[in-house]
Each structure stands twice: as C-alpha cells, then as structure tokens.
C-alpha cells in the first residue's frame, strides 16, 4: 500500500506475539518447570503491586478448584476435612460467580490498588478525648455516677 509518506510496512508476526512465553511442553518435567515459573511470575507481579484482571483471577481460582487438595472424596480426609473441602469449593464457586457478575470493569482490583496507594493518618489523641467527652455526657444524661463502676 502506498501513500504520500511512502510504502506502509506490513505488520510483522513478532508484533502480535504474546508477551509471556508460549511453551512447548514436551515432557512432564518441562511442564512442571513452566508451571512453577508461571506461579513465580504471578507472585512477582502481585508483589510489585499489579492486580490480576477478573479473567485472570477466575482462571486461577478454577485451577485451585480442580486441585486434589480440595477433593472432598479423598479417603485420607476426616469428616471435618471433607466438610472443609466441600465448603471451600462452594465458597470459591460463589466467589467466581460474584466476580463474573458483580465486578464490572475490575472495580474490586481498582479499589484494592487505590487503597494500597492511599495515605491515611488518624489523630488518636483527638479521638480518645472526644470519646471521653461523649461518655461523660452520656453518663450525665443517664443520671449515673461514673465513680460507682470503678
């Protein structure tokens, strides 16, 4: 395609590749190493302050749901362990549904990110003095002598 600025370059294949590597898992050992690397990359991203999108969170929660540790049919679990696995799976399933239906535009992730970046300070001396004033007014209103309780 030509234009007044010269020929336009065609889109190269490398411009459309994913940023994270796509692995060819030939052996189970390679697959295990790639899973561990992916987990490490997710941990590093979280520790650097990046929040996962809804879709990423749902994928990871579904992976957790499929884990053997949450299998309530495991014969090695006690009755209370089976109940814990069952209720944990139920809670995770409901949490996934809540993320899918109620977390429009990653609002929860934005809230957590903004909260982590906020600076909050509380004047505890002022709060304590106001609480003492309110308590003395409440005691006076109720007609009680506060010295009777100490």
How does this structure look, described?
0% of the residues are buried. The model is unreliable at 1-11 (pLDDT under 50). The termini are far apart. The longest helix is centred in the middle third of the chain and has 24 residues, at 79-102. The protein is built from 5 helices and 2 strands, in the order E-E-H-H-H-H-H. The protein has helices spanning 28-47, 54-65, 79-102, 107-117, 124-142, and strands spanning 2-3, 6-7. With 150 residues, it is mostly helical. It is elongated. Helix 2 (54-65) runs antiparallel to helix 3 (79-102). The chain has a two-stranded antiparallel ribbon with strand order 1-2. Strand 1 and strand 2 (6-7) form a beta hairpin.
Termini gap:
90 Å
Structure class: mainly alpha
Low-confidence stretches: 1-11
Number of strands: 2
Radius of gyration: 28 Å
Q: How large a portion of the residues is in β-strands, by DSSP E? A: under 5%
The helix content, as a percent range, equals 55-70%
Major beta sheet, strand line-up: 1-2
Indicate the mean pLDDT. Answer: 79
Overall shape: it is: elongated
Q: Tell me about the biggest sheet? A: 2 strands, antiparallel
Helix count, DSSP H or I runs of 4 or more residues? 5
Order of helices and strands: EEHHHHH
